[in-house]
Model the fold of this input.
Amino acid sequence: MDAEEPLVPKKEKRDLWDKIQIVMHPIGGLITALTIALVSYFGSNYLNNKQNNDSKIRLYTELMSSREQSESALRKDMFNSILGTILKDSHSLDENILQLELLAYNFHESLNLMPLFLYMDRQIATEKNIRLKAEYRKRLYKMAGDVISKQISSLEGAATRETMFITFPIDSIGHKPGLSQDLAMDWKDSKVIYDTVKVGNTNSVYKRVVYLKASGYNVDEKTVNVRLDIETSINDKFINMVTQEFTIDYFQFPMIDNTRLSNDMRCAVVMRDFDFPNFIEVDILYFPGSHSSLKEKPYYDEVVKKLLMDQ
Done:
């Protein structure tokens, strides 16, 4: 009998991919370990930086909050003291005007000071000394002009500003001063203002046609009776017309005394100059409600609409 030959297992022939797998297996483990280490390092570093930034923001917020509380308490005491002084009859006109100056230059963005200006103007009108009366009135008008200029400067960049010149009637030259007469006039003009609102990928173009009509004036009191009509269209489709009638003088402050429009916009009419018998210079200001005074709060539906637009 022939001897049986031993069975020798055949060596499996490895191809190129098998060799690559053998080489990459330990390298893959090393890469996994390095990835875990890097993720842990950068993750820890990110969390530390975030905690540091949160701590800085929290500290800054606390400092600002403490500062605002201190300023609010100081301004409250200052407001109560000044207002109480103005309404007392025991002080001279000069002292009262000084108190109003302190009040106007510190609270012009949060308070409607027009009633105080009108009150002081009435007090000045009772002054017997003609020279002092002219001096006090000049200070009062300058103060009002400064407040208006400050508010317009605050609106710079956010407001659209248009200027109109209301001309007096030809027969106004014969007016006799000191009678405080309301005289008739017939003047009108209009301006067109555009703004665009983006909602998602669509743009809505708001067109506001501002019509201003002057129907009367008073030279001695330096006032003008006007009617304001504002026609609103969106993408050339008429929406509504807002109409108001009021009297303008040197004490109209745009951030507080304005007309509320759709899309949380405001329109204000401000008298800048009363140059009788030549013209009355008037500014039309169109600006977002977010730039109005602190007392002007947006409506709830307007806030919701703004939030939905930002999504």
